[in-house]
Design goal:
12 helices, about 400 residues, five-stranded mixed sheet, 2 domains, 12 strands, alpha+beta, seven-stranded mixed sheet, globular, about 35% helix
Length: about 400
């Protein structure tokens, strides 16, 4: 098993790794697209292995008029596309049918969608949206027995993903990609092409091993171990120098989210990571609590939302800041203002002005809504379990209509 230092050295010396830092996810989509150009057969074999099929239904034609030849870019009836309709990488084929008046009808339809997750962890709502968008591009007459769209999820993370995020998707890791490429025979390569491929295999293999060997958080750890990058201790950290510490922070916040959801569920609170399920609840009793993790302004976030009527309560932890938020169309009542100031033994909440709530325009689809919040600093030495307990207490109070 390679050591962390040897994996770090591999990345430091990798040309393709440094090229990828400008756009960590788009780079990999561009690389796979480049591979489809220089060696279509190798690219197609990778997609087959990802989908766990011997061949795709469209490879030998669709038994449609004029399309009995193999589908491939060289026949001008197949295109590999990048960043098309928000799909990271996709394969479109050209289908043709005769209409009733004797004319020919042609349409490009997606037959393979690859979602590429390097910087973040996939969530169900996003993948469901991509499935819906891809299927809407098909006509009714395109859906024949044996035809379907292949959905592939390529992620740094191995094993089970949260909230059945990849249900209906063929989940593959970057370690899988490295292994597949290592076992492929690339034909008619220029020496530079082969060097790039070899370097890329080493890069993604090292990054995958580092990501999946990242340290596990325990509830007894202090908050400094969750969010260490701002401290002097980490000013010369090797992950920071390589500009990949954001990946580790996302791993940490995904673990924190999982811990929070488990704590809330143990207290009998129904939680979901499906934003639509949360938004569409109709006075559900008990209410549906939406939980999510994210990464914004170079800081990790995890949060829980509770809906009351047309308003939303939010408990959010971002970096070392704990926030109680309220999204509404008009200013909060004194009762809710008092809730924002409610003391916690471990957290001292404060407002920008003691006599008024800090005011922010909420950037949402509804510009009439505004967000009010109070915040407290998570002091060094505070344990993860104490932060989770504070969130659960706040959520329980909201659910029980105390604020």
């Amino acid at each position: 098993m390679p050591t962390t230092n040897s994996l770090i050295t591999t990345l430091q010396n990798s040309t393709t790794f440094h090229m990828s830092l400008g756009s960590k996810e788009l780079f990999h989509s561009n690389f796979l697209h480049w591979l489809s150009i220089i060696d279509w057969d190798a690219f197609l074999q990778i997609m087959r292995d990802f989908a766990n099929v011997k061949s795709f239904w469209w490879e030998n034609g669709c038994t449609l008029p004029g399309y009995k030849n193999n589908y491939c870019p060289q026949n001008d009836n197949l295109e590999v596309r990048r960043e098309h309709h928000s799909f990271d990488l996709s394969i479109y084929i050209l289908v043709e049918e005769n209409t009733k008046n004797g004319k020919t009808s042609q349409k490009w339809i997606p037959v393979l969608i690859l979602e590429n997750k390097v910087k973040s962890i996939p969530y169900k709502g996003q993948l469901d949206e991509y499935e819906k968008k891809a299927k809407e591009e098909w006509r009714k007459k395109d859906w024949l027995p044996g035809r379907d769209i292949t959905f592939i999820l390529l992620s740094l993370w191995k094993g089970t993903l949260p909230d059945q995020a990849c249900q209906g998707w063929n989940h593959n890791s970057y370690e899988d990609l490295a292994n597949l490429m290592s076992n492929l025979q690339f034909t008619n390569k220029k020496p530079l092409d082969q060097d790039i491929i070899t370097d890329y295999i080493g890069f993604i293999n090292a990054l995958s091993q580092l990501a999946n060997n990242s340290w596990k958080l325990q509830k007894g750890m202090t908050w400094d171990e969750v969010y260490p990058w701002k401290t002097t201790k980490y000013s010369g950290d090797q992950y920071v120098k390589l500009r990949i510490h954001d990946l580790w922070e996302k791993i940490h916040y995904e673990q924190l989210l999982s811990m929070l959801m488990g704590e809330l569920q143990n207290k009998g609170i129904y939680v979901t990571q499906d934003k639509d399920e949360y938004q569409n609840q109709s006075n559900s009793k008990p209410p549906v609590v939406y939980c999510a993790s994210n990464y914004a302004h170079n800081i990790g976030i995890f949060e829980a939302w509770v809906k009351k009527g047309n308003d939303d309560y939010i408990i959010q932890v971002q970096g070392d800041t704990y926030c109680r938020g309220f999204i509404c169309k008009k200013a909060p009542t004194k009762m809710i203002a008092a809730y924002f100031k409610r003391n916690n033994p471990q957290l001292q909440f404060h407002l920008k002005d003691d006599n008024a709530l800090t005011f922010y325009t909420y950037k949402d689809k509804n510009p009439k809504k505004h967000m009010y919040y109070s915040k407290a600093e998570i002091e060094q030495g505070m344990k993860i379990s104490e932060v989770l307990d504070a969130i659960c207490d706040d959520i329980q109070d909201i659910v029980k209509n105390k604020p």
